[in-house]
Specification:
- By secondary structure, the protein is α+β, with helices and mostly antiparallel strands.
- The protein folds into 3 domains: 155 residues, D-amino Acid Aminotransferase, Chain A, domain 1 (2-Layer Sandwich); 81 residues, ATP-grasp fold, A domain (Dna Ligase, domain 1, 2-Layer Sandwich), CATH 3.30.1490; 150 residues, Rossmann fold.
- Helices cover 37% and strands 25% of the residues.
- The strands form 5 sheets. Strands 7, 8, 9, 10, 11 and 12 form a 6-stranded antiparallel beta sheet that branches. A 4-stranded antiparallel beta sheet has the order 1-6-2-3, covered by helices on one side.
- The chain is elongated.
- Bound molecules: adenosine-5'-diphosphate and magnesium ion (MG).
- Magnesium ion binds next to loops.
Length: 390
Amino acid sequence: MHIHEYQAKGLFRQFNIKTPEAILINSTSEANKACANLGGNIWVVKAQVHAGGRGKGGGVILCRSVEEVEAACNQLFGTRLITPQTDAKGLPINQLLIEGGQSIERELYLGLLVDRQTQKITILASTEGGMDIEKVASETPDKIIKFGVDPLGVLNIDDCASIASKLGLVDSLKDQFVTTLLGLYEIFTSKDVSLIEINPLITTIDNNLLALDGKIDFDDNALYRHEDIVELRDISQEDEKENEASEHQLNYISLDGTIGCMVNGAGLAMATMDLIEHHGGSPANFLDVGGGTTADRVAKAFELIQTQKNVVGILVNIFGGIVRCDLIAEGILRAIEKVGLNLPIVVRLEGTNATAGLKLLDDSNADIHTEADLTQAAIKIVALSKEVSV
Ligand code: ADP
Ligand code: MG
């Protein structure tokens, strides 16, 4: 689960990490008062969306008067922000953070993540923080300091201080850095975080160390033990179809392609997507209907795929192990009855009760192409989809 910058900064403050004064607003009418309460004469208006790269997408605007702040708010509220990290549709801007403009001396990077290879919590730090950190990581990886911490051990102060030295921080900032890193580590471990990041972590000309931005991703599997975190969820930032799918225990991820896929088992779903690509098509989604699926769940999955705008054809690939293919066929027919069928569909059923399932489909009035072989099924749906697209 992702959260907004203002929420991440709220957690930072609870764990003694310093952030600039800022006020969240829901409409332009609140801007004037926010500026007055913050004081100063430079403010930054920041779009609250679940994506980074906002600066590059025009979602972080520096303003030198209240009028400029109001103009920035009017420009952003109610629109969608497209950044290098969003898709072409972007994400809705419903809230803005008005923050005091800071006199930045240096922009550092500090983050923690789980490194599966070393099985450690890895601290990443760099003197080259800011909007181009991805470029630094790919072109000059030696500028990223890495330090692994055994998750069963502790992060000790000397190690934090040594990272501070490597970042070239003067003594007065070292203590602030140690507090910041210990705070991040505490959030990471106590809240079951998978990624936490401050970019940029700035030093100011009056010798302060401040988290100017904040990103936290939580491990969904552990959310059941963090009610306070679940409350921070903002579903306006999430994919509607993915949410609807998860309510029905379906593993669904929207993609940009045109062929909707319904498969049982994550591995088989990946292989099916690869096969579609291999034969010249592109998948519109990843969908694993699960092992012990029911006819109802299949019907729901089918409805989800068919109502996804970019879909021009559907490939169903079921390997019946625990699940029975005749139940899958029933689900498909039920869904067609309910939502109609206006797209070409190829169904490949194999395994338990496959013959009965295929017969049900063949005997129905619905215009369904059945295939016993997966490669043939993929070739068929790619060809049928191309006819539709032309
Ligand atoms: P994103 O990473 O999504 O682009 P950031 O919050 O990191 O958004 O902002 C982008 C850049 O804007 C920062 O690297 C910093 O240079 C500048 N910036 C952000 N907030 C402030 C602020 N309060 N004062 C001055 N500059 C800021
Ligand atoms: Mg940033």
